[in-house]
Amino acid sequence: MSTEMELEGFRRQARAWLLHNMELKTGLPTPSDAEDRQLQAKIADAGYAGLPYPVEYGGRGLTLRHQEVFHEEAAPYRLPAGLGVSLGMIAPTLLDCAAPEFLADHMPKILRGEEKWIQLLSEPNAGSDLAGSLTKADRDGDRWIVNGSKVWSTAAAVADYGFCLTRTDFDRPKHRGLSVFAMPLRAPGVTINVIVKSDGCDNEFYEEFFSDVRLPADSLIGELNDGWSVAQRLLFHERNFSGGVGYAVGLRPKTRESVSIDDLIAAVRTRGTSLNDHEEDLLAQVYVNALVHNQLSRRVSSGYTTGSLNGPWGSLLKLSSGLKEHRRAEIAVELCGPAAVTWSDGSDNGPVGSSWLNAMVMSVAGGSNEMQRNTISEKLLGLPREPALDRDISFRESLRRRTPGGQEP
Amino acid sequence: MRFELSEEQEFLVETTQRFLAKELPPTALRAWTRNAAGEGYRQWWRTCAGLGWAGIFAPESSNDYGSVSGTPVIDAAIVSEIAGGSLAPSALLGASVAVRAIGRACPDDTADLQGLLEGSRIATLALEEPSGNWNLDTIATAARRDRGDLVVTGIKANVPDITTADIFVVTCRVDDSIGLVLVPASVAGVGVTPGQGLDVLREFGEVHFDSVRVSADALLCIGSGSARLAEEARRLATCLQLAESVGAVDRLSTLLIEYARHRHAFGRPIGGFQALKHRIADITLLVESCKGAADAAVDAVSNDSEDADLLISVAKSYIGDRSIRIAQECTQMFGGIGLTWEHDAHLYLRRVTSNRALLGTPEQHRRRVTEILRVRDAVGGKDVH
Fold first, then answer.
1. Which one of A308, A377, A384 has the shortest CB-CB distance to B278?
2. Within chain A, what is the greatest distance between any pair of CA atoms?
């Protein structure tokens, strides 16, 4: 049987299962964390979770095309909404880097939604310069003791594990003394606080403090002091997730509906006057930009599938999203005029104002536009690296140089 | 270039690239400035036609020509993209439109076709009018039926290959519809006025049809109608122009990236400075987005998809705006050398700026997008997707 025929058979099977077992999302609220887990378990029980993952780790041993096909069919249904980081970023990274025993233990639970993972990467003093991580893990017999703090972790309050980048050797250079651990978020010594975003939202981002958190030896993901390459894999998959390509294919809706300008039109409608030619042109720009972003995403996806593209091309999609969302919000503010900044209770225009405040989230979170531009120019185009003054000295020394007083870590 | 290519298309890419690298090295380009006309141009086009460029849309009955892959629109776009990269003088657009329309209307008309396929006769598309509106609805040129003949009257503007073309493929108002009429340049009443153009590697001008009498079968029809062929001609011309612009900005940005790697200032390659490399990253994003948009439009035209007009207008508006931004940014980053006649940057800037304005400006195509989506109605209450 040819691959295409086999895929079509799979599509029909998935379509039938979805029809009889899942609810259409129209009119229903976004699932809660508990509902996410139930939905994912249901999908897993039916054999549609972890499609491209090896069977021994709870997957189905199929292809990325199967995942894409399943999600094409599943797009109208109510699917888990908060497992993107777990399934689209952490799972493929673990597959790349974690030991077989670790995978056998955790992967089936991740794919079933039983274990929800988040990223613990950014720190108050290490954002774009992620390798400047100060959170440290000290060896204590056959255990590790973690101290430090992380910020900007999505959904930490309802997650089970964090993918935690820590410093395990201060005497090695910055990038070569890092290691990644699986951090159980309910462990003693972990404190989780919410970060209130500039738009007032208080249930999206969190910060964590670790005070003598004890981790067993097998929490180490990848090799000791090789955490930078492990983290790079995560960033690679994260950018693919932003673009809906690679192991994240299908996990973000990429259908025509996703570029609908309904919400924008609805917002303009409350203004009460019809659009002039200039405003119509702006609206068309939003539509064109959104459609072309999807076309770029298809191009990158096709480049990955055919093997023509290698490397972090997801960065191009991430930068594209960052710029597109910003322009979209800018146009929304222009179109709505005063209605974007004052509105009566119950009117629809609040979101236009918040989307403007949130416009920079896409261009900062998950690697700022500027970091994507570094990646694109250095890793995709081969332009010279940005000079770094702390690359080849011990991290301890680079910390000393940060402050005139020569503060020890 | 698109990634999913058949073996035959990979061969087409390879032979086209090799041919242009050999026959049209960058040093040879200057000879064509203000000179893409007349006998030299005819000879060049015959050579290109020898590679099959003019025959991509040849009907099945013509044995020696045709599409290598069975998807001629994609093959022609591939050639157009590669030719755009080299800024090659080319009558590909006119030949493709004419051969496709003749093949669709009267595939057995071997006499008309043969010269076009061999490249000994050059066809050009006369679509736009002095009004500056690109829509077929606004066409004023008319073909009136008279004693079994057609009499064509009107003016077409921005017509490529104006003094060299042997045949004008003219969009006309005919029988209360829009049709495609073939008018030989040699017929009485056809007057051409060559103009000046920003794109110095291409000739443009106006053609006047002053009661030009042609036989009724000069109107290309499928069944009883011609409107569909006119529509197809406009679509095909637009998507080949898009592919050409994509080839141009792709090559120009590649030249810039090379330059940024090798040009040193302050002791290091200029491509290492964030002030430049971030702009180069932005250009790369725009170039790749242009490719995605053009490929989607080409695929839609190739599949005769119901979204073809929408995707063409999306691509034409996007690529029109972004291609000139890419070309300007590249020129800026080349610095002084980019402002000289000897450097190719201006030739690319000239080409994409011309393409932006011809076959509909970005603003006109965005208006078309809103018309297709009926945004105006949606504001009154209908949904838009």
1. A377
2. 72
- Using a CB-CB cut-off of 8 Å, the residues of chain A touching B3 are 299, 302-303, 305-306, 308-309
Query: A75 touching B, CB under 8 A?
Result: no
pLDDT tens-digit profile of A23-50?
A: 999 889 989 999 999 999 999 999 999 9
Q: Does A321 touch chain B (CB under 8 A)?
A: no
Q: Which domains does chain A have, with CATH numbers?
A: 3-83+91-114 (1.10.540.10), 118-225 (2.40.110.10), 255-380 (1.20.140.10)
Q: Which residues have a Cβ under 8 Å from the Cβ of B162 and sit 6 or more positions away? A: B37, B124, B192, B193, B194, B195, B203, B204, B205, B206, B207
Q: Tell me if chain B has a CB within 8 Å of the CB of A374.
A: yes
CA B172 to chain A, closest CA, distance in angstroms equals 29
Question: Rounded to the nearest 5°, which phi and psi values hold at B98?
Answer: -70, -50
Third-level CATH fold of B124-225 = Butyryl-CoA Dehydrogenase, subunit A; domain 2 (2.40.110)
Interface pTM, i.e. ipTM? 0.94
pLDDT digits (tens, 9 = 90+) for A205-219: 999 999 999 999 999
Per this entry, what is the length of chain B?
A: 385
Q: Out of 1.10.540, 3.40.50, 2.60.40, 1.10.10, which CATH number does the structure's domain B7-121 have?
A: 1.10.540
- Global pTM reads 0.91
Using CA coordinates, name the residue in chain B closest to A299.
Answer: B292
CB contact under 8 A, B292 and A265: no
* Chain B interface includes A386 (CB < 8 A): yes
Task: Please tell me the least confidently modeled range out of A211-215, A259-263, A290-294, B307-311.
Answer: A259-263
Residue A48 in 3-state DSSP?
coil
What span, in angstroms and rounded, lies between the C-alpha atoms of B199 and B347? Answer: 7
The CATH code of the domain at B228-379 is 1.20.140.10
Say whether A288 and B379 touch across the interface (CB within 8 A). Answer: no
Burial of A370: CB neighbours in 10 Å, binned 0-12, 13-18, 19+ = middle
